[in-house]
Amino acid sequence: MKEFIRDLGLENINYGYSTGLKNRAGAGEELISYSPADQTPIASTTLCTTTDFEEAIQAAKSAYVQWRNVPAPKRGEIVRQMGEAFRKNKQALGQLVSYEMGKSLQEGLGEVQEIIDICDFAVGLSRQLYGLTMHSERPEHRMYEQYHPLGIVGIISAFNFPVAVWSWNAMIAWVCGNVCIWKPSEKTPLSAIACQNIISSVIESNQLPEGLSTLLIGGPEIGQALSSHEDVALVSATGSTRMGKAVAKTVASRLGKYLLELGGNNSIIVTENADLNLTVPAVVFGAVGTAGQRCTTTRRLIVHQSVKEELTQRLVKAYGQLKIGDPLDPAHHVGPLIDQDAVLNYTNAIEAAVAQGGEILFGGEVLEGNYVLPTIIDMPAQTEIVKHETFAPILYILTYEDWNDAIFLQNDVPQGLSSAVFTQNIREAERFLSANGSDCGIANVNIGTSGAEIGGAFGGEKETGGGRESGSDAWKAYMRRQTNTINYGTTLPLAQGIKFDL
């Protein structure tokens, strides 16, 4: 058994249901987690059912009554302690994320660092949940607006970021006064259980209510239950566009709130004025990081014809230097895909690209197990496959002559998450960031499409879902706005000068 599994208390798991203070087996079947690195069984747990879900709702409702009355800075102190707990467990949790999901150890540790960073952000935020004051048109009246917690926040997370995306939601939701029910991906249950174990010590030592953080290891029926239950005020869902549309339809049918972080099909425009020394490493990391299994992965490279040959040669050389293998080995850049279904999607996309006129410049091969070669394909046009998001390390190269053509290619996809331009021309940079430029939620200049910082709001437009998580004022999605008017005078003037004499 791996040492980090013992360090995280995962050697004898017999539960899939946890309320932060109590753990027990779910009412469903056994679920075995396999490492995509070597297909070795790591540990098993049990799936929760809708019966478990109903119990979780009751625990969460009870916890919310108590938690919402805790002053926000005190809630921030709890999150600060959680951040400290993650600091102490960073190495072990980062190794588990790497082993269970397949991303490189550096990326696994970086994901845990994101938890720590969002905890720090949330602590400061707990003293800055600002409202506004405004002048009333009526004498001796004061108007202001304030924010209150929503209640229960449901979190549905994906396998590719098994712990960080949960924390973006949970830490902000908690300082805002909400309680959380978390349904992680069935492909990475152990990483979720480890996180719950880490924060449970903080919950217990501070005598916080059971149900502040509830974890349900379950299948699609748990996600459906979160989406349809009237007591779940907000559903934050990360995953495929197909899943997001189903969540949105269900939640909207009961006029609930949802926050969606869905697919991406991100591009980098490389102009004739680009610094290729900056461009190459940004493209390589963006395209092959997490083996292409990021929503912010660079999937399209839109290159000016004058620099295409040089850039392509440099990229092929860089790809030839990538080390592929065991993600726990710090020397390796690229780990495995999550499972054989992902490998099949990789091969199908390459076959489609070639059939649509693409030329493979590098890669295109399946290695042993779930490992594949990162692939570069020169495409004659932005065909149907190029507009499709394939969760694998496939980079399509497109060529342009005119700036307007580049922007058209950038925006001519259903997704709208992340984008970038590499240029030393200030006019090109500003045009890219203008209303006539990138239509994505994230638009960068001279940095790649992935690696967003937690201080900025994260999310995208179109089929990416329109949600915003993490920094900036994304906290407002986890609260309800209330406008207040106070009359401190001795008369009752009405708005708009209306007279109503009795």
Textual characterization of the structure:
- One of its GO terms (molecular function) is aldehyde dehydrogenase (NAD+) activity.
- Pfam families: Aldedh.
- Belongs to the aldehyde dehydrogenase family.
- By secondary structure, this protein is of the alpha/beta class.
- The chain has 2 domains: 3-262 and 465-483, Aldehyde Dehydrogenase, Chain A, domain 1 (3-Layer(aba) Sandwich), CATH 3.40.605; 266-445, Aldehyde Dehydrogenase, Chain A, domain 2 (3-Layer(aba) Sandwich), CATH 3.40.309.
- 36% of the residues lie in helices and 21% in strands.
- The chain is built from 14 helices and 23 strands.
- The chain has helices at 3-7, 50-67, 72-88, 90-101, 105-125, 164-175, 189-205, 220-228, 241-253, 276-288, 308-320, 340-355, 403-411, 426-433; strands at 17-18, 23-24, 30-34, 41-46, 132-135, 141-149, 152-156, 179-183, 213-216, 232-238, 257-261, 266-270, 298-304, 359-362, 375-378, 394-400, 415-416, 418-422, 442-445, 457-458, 461-462, 469-470, 479-487.
- Strands 2-1-9-8-7-10-11 form a 7-stranded mixed β-sheet, with helices on both faces. It has a 7-stranded mixed β-sheet with strand order 14-15-16-13-12-18-19, with helices on both faces. It has a 3-stranded antiparallel β-sheet with strand order 5-6-23, with no helix packed on it.
- Strand 12, helix 10 (276-288) and strand 13 (298-304) form a beta-alpha-beta unit.
- The longest helix is centred in the N-terminal third of the chain and has 21 residues, at 105-125.
- The mean pLDDT is 97.
